[in-house]
Design goal:
This protein is an alpha/beta fold. The protein has 18 helices and 14 strands. The strands form two sheets. It has a seven-stranded parallel sheet, with helices on both faces. It has a seven-stranded parallel sheet with strand order 10-11-9-12-13-8-14, sandwiched between helices. The longest helix has 19 residues. It is globular and about 65 Å long. Bound molecules: adenosine-5'-triphosphate. Adenosine-5'-triphosphate (ATP) binds next to helix 4. Its EC number is 3.6.4.13.
Length: about 450
């Protein structure tokens, strides 16, 4: 007998009694998918959230980066539709909203693995393709994984697409999806969703803001926060340090860092697309001795996916990324996260640093701060229970790449133009109140070899 069909009344799930996934009343199809994907023992967030979600509760799930939140919502989705014997004729039964295309794609791939024995259809609605290609299939898709903007576009423009039968809504990286950047889009999406549904919200930095939650009309949500009482908010296997570095030394510092970690897999976070485009070109010319890859929001969709896949596969490489790679992405075996530009807040720091030290693995994070950023950022990190130590750099050990950069710039008009555009952007950001002082902007001009 299939436990999921017979044990519809699962009101009695006791998370402390769960040791393997098979202790949950889940279908054989899901169990088989989990075994095939080599998942046996649930993590803490999975033990607690899956049990409650199977009982139909709305959930606010919070757990550290890399602790397995994805399966904590994918398993309940599969079970919810399975119990209702959902078919392709029933259309969309579950909707997962992700802040970035890459995260949506990654979740889709995990769903394909663990849900492969079910008959549901699943689809990615993330843009980058023609709308009509997606429109042809969207109304026949049972589980949709999407980014907010593209979903709303279909709600507005694909006439036969409707969400009236939706059973379960998941917001992955919920605090990000509910923040100002997506507010208007999300409000418009929610208007199209039925009020009667189950809603699951997950993030490593969960929102408890009542206003946000009211927008989603959650019903008595269960707050599942497995690490709330932990001493630190970041994984125990993550070693975290920061250095204070003058702006004119940042590129030298990056080059020297890469030279010292040639066999490692590293993500370097920057704050703007223009800066990253310029530095990528510059580092391709500087040849640090390790493949340099690039991921930012202004890349074409194909290129983005190719970079994402390449970095997943490589054993040693460096990925220059903006914050589109900060949340949720599960690149295998990343050794280091280097935040060369200060994150906008402590939550962004936590997500960026969490790209390493995932699921029981170790990892190291290094934050680079300008002298003007140190006090404010360190205070924010302390308040968020992030254990971070200051280490000193020996300026004498930094390789000076300025002369090389200047000679490339002289050779290459395009590189020079990029450098000037970056400088302009930084100046504009400066006038909008970011922390760069005029002197630092001039220094950056020097750094970029202008
Ligand atoms: N029960 C499990 N057993 C073994 N590995 C697991 C288990 N659950 C998750 N993992 C693995 O742990 C890694 C992290 O999982 P996941 O990406 O879901 O973390 P997360 O909590 O969503 O992280 P983030 O906050 O960064 O989004 C993945 O590689 C996943 O395959």
């Amino acid at each position: 007998q299939d436990k999921a069909r017979t044990a519809l009344n699962v009101g009695g799930i006791n998370s402390s009694k769960i040791t393997t996934f098979f202790d949950f009343p889940i279908s054989k199809k899901t169990s088989k998918g989990l075994v095939q994907a080599q998942y046996r023992m649930p993590t803490e967030i999975q033990k607690q959230a899956i049990g409650l979600a199977l009982q139909g509760k709305d959930i606010l799930g919070a757990a550290k980066t890399g602790s397995g939140k994805t399966l904590a919502f994918l398993i309940p989705i599969l079970e919810c539709l399975y119990r209702q014997q959902w078919t392709s004729d029933d259309g969309m039964g579950a909707l997962i909203i992700s802040p970035t295309r890459e995260l949506a794609y990654q979740t889709f791939e995990t769903l394909r693995k663990v849900g492969k024995n079910h008959d549901f259809s699943a689809g990615l609605i993330i843009g980058g393709k023609f709308l009509d290609v997606e429109s042809d299939r969207i109304h026949r898709t049972n589980i949709i994984i999407c980014t907010p903007g593209r979903l709303l576009q279909h709600m507005d423009e694909t006439c036969y697409f409707h969400a009236s039968d939706l059973q379960m809504l998941v917001l992955d990286e919920a605090d990000r999806i509910l923040d100002m950047g997506f507010a208007q889009t999300m409000n418009a999406i929610v208007e199209n969703l039925p009020k009667k549904r189950q809603t699951l919200l997950f993030s490593a930095t969960q929102t408890k803001c009542v206003k946000d939650l009211a927008r989603l009309s959650l019903k008595d949500p269960e707050y599942v926060s497995v690490h709330e009482n932990a001493k630190f908010s970041t994984p125990g296997t993550l070693e975290q340090n920061y250095i204070v570095c003058e702006l004119h030394q940042k590129v030298n510092m990056l080059y020297s860092f890469l030279k010292n970690h040639l066999s490692k897999k590293i993500i370097v976070f920057f704050s703007s697309c223009k800066e990253i485009q310029y530095l990528f070109r510059a580092f391709c010319r500087l040849r640090p001795g390790v493949p340099v890859l690039l991921l930012h929001g202004k890349q074409q969709q194909m290129k983005r996916m190719q970079m994402y896949d390449d970095f997943c596969r490589k054993k040693a490489a460096v990925l220059f990324a903006t914050d589109i790679a900060a949340r949720g992405l599960d690149f295998p075996a990343v050794n280091w996260v280097l935040q060369l530009d200060c994150p906008e807040d402590a939550n962004t720091y936590i997500h960026r640093a969490g790209r390493t030290a995932r699921y029981k693995e170790g990892g190291e994070a290094l934050l680079v701060l300008l002298p003007s950023e140190e006090e404010g950022m360190v205070k924010q990190l302390e308040e968020k229970k992030v254990p971070i130590n200051k280490i000193e750099i020996n300026p004498g050990k930094l390789t000076n790449v300025q002369p090389k950069l200047q000679s490339f710039l002289a050779e290459e008009q395009e590189l020079k133009e990029r450098a000037q555009r970056v400088n302009l952007i930084i100046e504009t950001e400066n006038s909008n109140g970011l922390q760069f002082s005029c002197l630092q902007v001039l220094n950056l001009g020097y750094v970029l070899g202008i």
